[in-house]
Amino acid sequence: MRFDQPTAPHARPIVSVPVIMRRVLYALVPAMLCHTWYFGPGLLLNFALTAAAALLTEGLVLRLRGRPTRHALRDCSALVTAALLSFALPPFVPFWIPLIGGAIAITLAKQLYGGLGKNLFNPAMVGYVFLILSFPVQMTQWLPPRMGDLDYRPLSVGEHVRYVFTGHLPADLDVDAITRATPLDLVKEGLRAGRPFAEIRGGALFGDFGGRGWEWVANFIALGGLYLLYTGTIRWHIPTSFLSGLLVPATVLYLIDPSAFATPGFHLFSGATMLGAFFIATEPVSAAGTDRGRLIYGAGIGLLVYALRTWGAYPDGVAFSVLLMNGTVPLINRYTRPRIYGQR
Amino acid sequence: MVDYVFERHLSGGILLPANKTTSTAGPIHRGFVPSKLVLALRQHRGNAAVPVVAVGERVLKGQAVARAGAAPSAAVHAGSSGWVRAIEERPVLGGHGVQPSLCIVIETDGHDERVPAAAAPTWPTDVVEQRAAIRAGGIVGLGGAVYPTADKLATPVPCKTLIVNGAECEPYISCDDMLMRENAAEIVSGTLLLTDVLAAPRAIIAIERDKPQAMEAIEAAAQAADDTRLKLAEVPTIYPAGGEKQLVELLTGEEVPSGRYPSEFGYVCQNVGTAYAVQRLRAEREPLIARVVTVTGGGVKKPQNIEAPIGTPIAELIAQCGGYNEGVTRLIAGGSMMGYALPDDETPITKATNCIIAALADEVRTDMHEWPCIRCGDCAMVCPSRLLPQDLLVAAVSSDFASLHTLGLQDCIECGCCDVICPSQIMLTERFRVAKRSVAARERIPVKSPGQD
What we know:
The structure holds two protein chains of two kinds. Chain A is mainly alpha-helical. Chain A has 16 helices and no strands. Chain B is 27% helix and 21% strand. In chain B, helix 4 packs across helix 5 and helix 10 packs across helix 13. The longest helix of chain B has 17 residues.
């Protein structure tokens, strides 16, 4: 009898890339449902459109590069990029925004660098930054949460879908009447104008810590993050150091001057904090590779997010902070190698 | 009163399904005599043994058929009585895979007739003579490295601690576990004998936490022996806690420097099977003629531990276990992490063979597809040598020898943890083995400097 003779180890690998990617997608489902509950079908439409664009361009570029497409398209990595990008997009944008975003994320940030595992920068964030720089008007079309007691007429699903694909709105409405500034916008402008933070957050859009609705989406994203930690899909270093990097300066400055700076709680539950800490900064390809390196990398992102939110031009800073720290990864890796067993 | 040593730190490691319950269900099957024995002259590290029998000669059980060559070496003995039928090259599993190797082939006669007890010399009192007796008794390290025990006992520095390894961390293997359950007293006596030869102030028997029955048996035997030098240690159930350098780190907190041996720093590691073998040699005058082999896996009908004469053809061992099940696809000598996949079952077991796994397709890796590395770093998390396999991979693929050195390729113990944890399912260990070979090949070729003719 003859037997096959591969080399050791013979034990089966315990996990695979598609399994990891699918876990990330499952982890986002509760937040997706919560987002849809508060902000309508925008996120689901964005996800469908970015996913279509991402898969299509991935297949196309792989074909152009003469690479096999079967495993690459089934690894679900393009779907993860699409899901993260769709969370970053405003829920009320014309259809071509997610299409362009998905295509740019996959081609410019991923395939041009050599595909899965080769990208230096987080593809979803590259797509997002491309869109916010190119289409600043559409990229600020945020909606208020459907909380009932806001003085606001929400669009029906049909009206929303019609706007996305045709640009038509009901006769009594225009885009300005539908969209609202986000809590991060309001805080930034209010503080700039010298209004005390306590007064700003008395507005109708504010909840317990962050914006109404938004903070619940953040809760569900954090829940998904805990699931990723529990399954070992991500490890604690980056979320912990990211959140510490953000919360330490936020706490110190808030304690120094509570009227001129937002509360740490507001920073924690606003904007893309949770998404960034658990889903974006933890994207392994573009993150630092060593344990100590990941602590530095995460803390750097957290500090930059705080600095950009407080003193920068844009209301949120997660995308820019992640991309900036992506650029430092080779250096961080170089200087944080662990001491090898038995070497000094 | 039994003293315990508490565990220190262990880097990396991975929790694996043990797959040991089927082979530990019954006692060790003893007294098995195969129809023939194929005894390789080089079944230990170091120099080959020298034949002292001729074709056609009748040999008895326990009779030396080859004496030890120049040190390091060990003698080889007949595991049963029979006739020497050939001294020729046969394929045997050694350190470099299955290769033709000079063997003494014995056809057993079924009488299992022993060398008369009167012919055996008495156990010497002098340490040098004791080492010579161990060498003549053919005893080698039975944990898998098969380094001649007598040579390992001649340490370059005084031994601080003898570590007797009963961790047995690799999946499927249970021969040490069963031996500890059934022969704890002999293992403890053998440990104390080795302690005497080494003049070591203490000896630690280390057992993984998932072997409570073995621990209980060894505890009782240690209690009975009542020797203050003897300590026990329960080590965590994690692979590869039983690696020599890992066990030293785990028990003493000390790291053995790169490229050096524990014995250079006063630590000598011996397997529990080796301790049992030296005790058999002292008490029964029985040289190393048999060892416990775990025959297991979904591909064999009756998984069990067998005390098999050295040189038993694997096919006869499998037949003794009821034969193969339908669908067996791989035959592994050793465990599922570091074992060697055999081409067929005609090769014999050697002193190194602790386990034979007849595996079904769903027990082993058969899909060899790899995704690109996504730099998750899980390989670095499980690496017991604290290497960065993801960076080593890049260096190995691009033959970047300088980086391979700084990243510590030479410190890779080839445990396979990174392969199993890798979500991209990249065959890292094999790449590192290949890279090590090219580094070695490169070092052998003198590098010409520019301008030189």
